Amino acid sequence: MQALSYSAVFLSSLISIGVYAGAGKAPQPPADDNLSLSGTLAEPSFSGITASRLQTAVDKAYADFKNLSEGRNADYIPILTETPSNLFGIVLATPDGTLFSAGDVEYKFSIQSISKPFTAALVMNQTSPEVLKEKIGVEPTGLPFNSKLALEIYEKRSVNPLVNAGAIAAVSLINADSEDKRWYLIRQNLSDFAGSELELLEKVYQSEYDTAWSNRAIANLLYSYHRLYCDPEEALRVYTKQCALGVSCENLAIMGATLANGGKNPITVKQVLQKEHVPELLAIMATAGFYDESGEWMAQAGLPAKTGVGGGIVAVVPGKFAIAAFSPRLNASGNSIKAMKAIRQISGELGLGIYGANPE
């Protein structure tokens, strides 16, 4: 099964001829309640919002921010400076896999820290949320994502699975009898969320691993405090590979849509995360998904989300939508400026904040 993707031109043609098929399903004769008063097929809607309004919101956000030149590419991973800075894409996905997109949505970039909640989901699947809480923690640090200070001032050391320390610990918690098996399980899990095989970007991995002195220090500190659960260098290698997987904006949108759909991938229909664990994972994303900007993000956009220094962000509207955006120019906290602004605007215009509408 493949996701159905809309563009502005394609959407207008679908509406004008009255044809719609959801998420790869064959077109079906309209039921009576899908007919307009005139007897013609009504425009499709998702969670009470018409398809044209969704596409318009995506197109407007793309147009409003595509020429923004604030920020710069991450440079502590040298190869990330080579990503063209003007790339920008937005995808809004529904729980049935329908996509509304604009811009550079098929370009492959490294997933980086957006991988973290999905590996935390694998820990939940293999063990339980209680084990995640006990062995890693779930509290926000209020500090940068790569902070070593957090390991010293917080009793749990790793603190939560969305900062580097907690994410490396999560990799070490995966039940595997070898490094190859650990990597296979993590990669397969991320691919299951995306609904397609994700490939390792070898040059990104090598660039990141060759300069991983900070993360190597974190892994060894965790090990010394008995908060790492496999060999430190093994955990570091697998974690670095996890971050170097290639994704597109479309991939991220489907990963988010899987969470919006109660843990079931809308393309493969595989239950990737147990439904009862989804709210717990989204809660961690809400409190720690933007690192030391998480409170500001939730106040402005009101959506659980995860960001990565590769330039991607994915946000989840539980039961309704996922919004992914990509642009490599980052702010000082390591979050994509264009992607933040685009998702924030779409959330505000469509009234998607989980605590209520957060209009501009």
Written overview of the protein:
The protein is of the alpha+beta class and 360 residues long. The protein has 2 domains: 5-48, no CATH class; 63-350, Beta-lactamase (3-Layer(aba) Sandwich), CATH 3.40.710. It is 42% helix and 10% strand. The chain contains 14 helices and 10 strands. The protein has helices at 8-17, 51-65, 116-126, 129-135, 149-153, 164-173, 179-194, 202-210, 213-224, 232-243, 249-260, 278-288, 294-300, 337-350, and strands at residues 5-6, 45-46, 49-50, 89-93, 99-103, 109-110, 246-247, 305-307, 312-317, 321-326. A 6-stranded mixed sheet has the order 1-5-4-10-9-8, sandwiched between helices. Strand 9 (312-317) and strand 10 form a beta hairpin. The longest helix is centred in the middle third of the chain and has 16 residues, at 179-194. The chain is globular, with a radius of gyration of 20 Å. The relative contact order is 0.17. Mean pLDDT is 89; it is low at 8-35. It holds the Pfam family Glutaminase. One of its GO terms (molecular function) is glutaminase activity. Residues 1-21 form the signal peptide.
